[in-house]
Specification:
This protein is mainly α. Helix content is 87%, strand content 0%. The longest helix is centred in the N-terminal third of the chain and has 35 residues. The two termini are 18 Å apart.
């Protein structure tokens, strides 16, 4: 009985965490790479956003994998 109740909240939470990882990666990391590809001077704030995006993506994926165990 307990396995059913655990799976009932676990699957939507996993989907949400993976979707958040995809959104963060797309918005911060890919978006930042597109901006860096232009011939504009490199702004340190942009580098910080790239780093935060990578870290947040990794955290969301690790949390989802931990919950999936």
């Amino acid at each position: 009985m307990q396995d059913d109740s655990k799976k009932s909240w676990q699957e939507p939470l996993l989907k949400c965490l993976f979707d958040m990882a995809k959104v963060v990666f797309t918005a911060l990391v890919v978006g930042g790479c597109v901006i860096l590809s232009f011939d504009a001077p490199i702004n340190p704030d942009l580098i910080y956003k790239e780093i935060i995006g990578i870290i947040a993506t990794v955290i969301f994926v690790i949390a989802a994998c931990y919950i999936n165990k």
